[in-house]
Write a structure and sequence with these properties.
Low-confidence stretches: 328-353
CATH architecture of the largest domain: 3-Layer(aba) Sandwich
Oligomer: single chain
Shape: globular
Helix content: 40-55%
Bound molecules: adenosine-5'-triphosphate
CATH class of the largest domain: Alpha Beta
Number of domains: 2
CATH superfamily of the largest domain: HUPs
Structural class: alpha/beta
Length: 353
Amino acid sequence: MPVCCAACSGKAVLKRPKTGDALCRECFFHVFETEIHHTILDANLFTAGETVAIGASGGKDSTVLAYVLKLLNDKYDYGLKLILLSVDEGITGYRDDSLTTVKRNQKQYDLPLKIVSYEELYGWTMDAIVKEIGLKNNCTFCGVFRRQALDRGAVLVEADKIVTGHNADDIAETVLMNVLRGDIARLRRCTSITTGNEGYLPRCKPLKYTYEKEIVMYAYFKKLDYFSTECIYSPNAYRGYARAFLKDLEAIRSSSIIDIIHSGESLSIKKDVKMPTQMTCLQCGYISSNKVCKACVLLEGLNKGLPKLGIGKGLKARQKLVAAGMTLTNTESQSTSTESTAVLNTDKQSLEF
Ligand SMILES: Nc1ncnc2c1ncn2[C@@H]1O[C@H](COP(=O)(O)OP(=O)(O)OP(=O)(O)O)[C@@H](O)[C@H]1O
């Protein structure tokens, strides 16, 4: 006997991963889009007239984000100017192919597209960086440079905000990883739907409560055009363990993902926990949690033929930086320990959008 849709009594074609409800295609589209609309409204993410840069990697998350944002912007008259913003990290056989997908999306969704590249911004492609540093710490460079490249691209297109396709699974994983690493300072911030206020370009995650499985289903039923290959340089082992653990929890109880996010949101951090402060990099003028930003430290290392400069913990890293002729102020030299640890935590950074 065919299963009926829980919403309209038509023929169900799927079981919704988030709630277990049997739904027909149209009702699934409706709840999926409406939930994102409510996330946007509840968090007051946008104001009419704003230009919003969509971080577009060509993958499923950002493709669904671009599609749904365009749809909601038209349907509910948000009054936003949407722009696709892609960062070309210079990874042959990966990013070149995914950018081809973004170029197709640009036509399909009729949105402007801006591409910025590591080569033009930093003088290095990831292919060249991997040749220098190998596969061990390359994600550090990529995460740090991408974060800044998105900012720089957004400034070029005069965007008021950046949105990224981070989904509920990504955020729950980061909560777990921050707990496992004891990184309490980042634990609270990683669940924020908007980061980077206080004078910096805000970054928002409209898919914060959207399950990855539902994003895949939505993309499948809508026949969206996206690129699904994993990055050839990023084994990202630790996140992989958190991901596998989360998937096990989800299989036992599907609400685990949202429950973990809610736990992260509800945590209160003791006053004496040192929180990173944001400032402007003295060298490049972009956002930083130290006087000289991680991107400048890493770039200096590459340009000096010392690619491991800035990678390492505490005293050793400070000694390497000073030996390489990088001037550290008192505060900086005291904070280098925290800074360098942060440099190592690449996948954490990629979530601090
Ligand atoms: N090269 C890029 N250019 C522009 N935005 C990017 C790029 N890489 C990542 N992003 C943004 O950061 C988000 C999270 O990136 P991550 O690398 O975790 O990819 P993901 O979870 O596989 O997402 P996607 O499916 O969109 O690729 C993406 O959804 C996208 O919005």
